[in-house]
Write a structure and sequence with these properties.
Elements lengths: L7 E7 L23 H21 L3 E7 L14 E4 L3 E4 L13 H10 L4 E4 L12 H4 E4 L4 E5 L6 H11 L2 E5 L16 E3 L3 E4 L7 H11 L6 E4 L2 H5 L6 E5 L2 E7 H6 L2 H8 L3 E5 L11 H4 L1 E2 L9 E8 L2 E7 L1
Parallel strand pairs: 1-2, 4-5, 7-8, 10-11, 13-14
Antiparallel strand pairs: 1-15, 3-4, 6-7, 9-10, 12-13, 16-17
């Protein structure tokens, strides 16, 4: 099993999904959703999460699926922004940029992780919100868990003060850079332009503004056994090709990404990825209207199961999530 690829994830299935109007201003990946029927959007997003969770389970990935029936958390389908987990039994809770995302932090999710896995401490950075300091989890950062590097594009969602504090607490080296898309708009979340797997990385290096910093990032990504750094174009980034997450399934590593992202990859890029991980495309077109894709939907679990518990799972039964534990 790879340090980089977790074998379990947390997902949230929204009952009242909607593109978030508070994130529209600085999320260049979020189209204006005016004209869409809210009830149809919500129903479609619910079904997309259900199918995505089932596909991950079929690949042998443990899925802890939680329900969100509230109307005031439009982005709750993206839990990776408010929680991250780390080897050694550590959990981090993060400060969120937009006010209507701050209630996404849920104690029941934290408690499930505590009862199912070895958790030593929970470090809560959410109090930084009162000082207008934000760091939106593994959206704002892309973590190299093996080399202990936290890559972060400067944005409203990635404050250097919060990043430095996280890196000090969790033992990562911060690597900050400026990145803009083809329209000159600052990249709002690092995980739309960078995905780090065990033996390869996907990166839109041309979006990094500083040539010197770009080369430094490329050099670090290719260090110590990561034999392939796959360049993504601006057009591929617009299709969420960088928003992917490597996971450990029953047959080895899989790369979870959206169908839209999969279709944007060239045949050669797919072949290079599949030397190391099987591609697992998931259909989430409605959720992508919120400006995020598959990686944003998955909060990886990098924790050790408690003794006597093997692969805790959330089974999908009659469209309901039932958390079960195999003893």
């Amino acid at each position: 099993m790879s340090v980089q690829s977790p074998s379990a994830v947390v997902m949230v299935r929204p009952h009242r999904f909607a593109p978030n109007p508070q994130t529209l201003a600085d999320n260049g990946f979020q189209p204006n959703a005016d004209g869409h029927d809210p009830e149809r959007l919500a129903a479609a997003a619910y079904d997309e999460v259900t199918r995505a969770g089932a596909a991950l389970e079929a690949a042998g990935v443990t899925v802890h699926l939680f329900e969100d029936e509230t109307e005031h958390r439009p982005d709750s389908v993206f839990p990776n922004n408010w929680i991250s987990t780390h080897s050694g039994g550590h959990i981090a809770l993060f400060p969120m940029y937009t006010p209507n995302r701050r209630t996404e932090r849920r104690s029941d999710i934290v408690e499930l992780l505590k009862t199912t896995y070895r958790v030593q401490d929970v470090i809560d950075y959410s109090g930084l919100e009162y000082d207008e300091v934000f760091l939106e989890g593994t959206g704002a950062m892309v973590l190299d868990h093996e080399l202990r590097i936290a890559y972060a594009a400067r944005s409203n969602r990635a404050d250097p003060i919060a990043l430095e504090r996280f890196c000090t607490n969790f033992g990562y080296e911060p690597m900050v850079f400026d990145a803009v898309d083809g329209r000159g708009i600052a990249v709002y979340h690092t995980n739309v332009i960078l995905s780090i797997a065990t033996e390869f990385a996907l990166v839109a290096a041309d979006m990094l503004v500083s040539p010197a910093r770009r080369q430094e990032v490329l050099d670090r990504l290719s260090a110590r056994g990561r034999r392939d750094v796959i360049a993504l174009s601006n057009a591929q980034i617009d299709e969420f090709a960088g928003n992917a997450l490597e996971l450990w399934g029953s047959q080895g590593r899989v790369l979870a990404l959206s169908r839209r992202a999969f279709d944007a990859l060239t045949t050669e890029q797919r072949d290079r990825i599949e030397r190391s991980a099987r591609l697992l495309p998931l259909d989430v077109p409605t959720i992508e209207l919120a400006g995020g894709s598959v990686r944003c939907m998955l909060a990886g679990v990098h924790l050790d199961p408690r003794p006597g518990l093997v692969e805790p799972r959330a089974a999908l039964v009659d469209d309901a999530a039932v958390v079960s534990v195999v003893e």
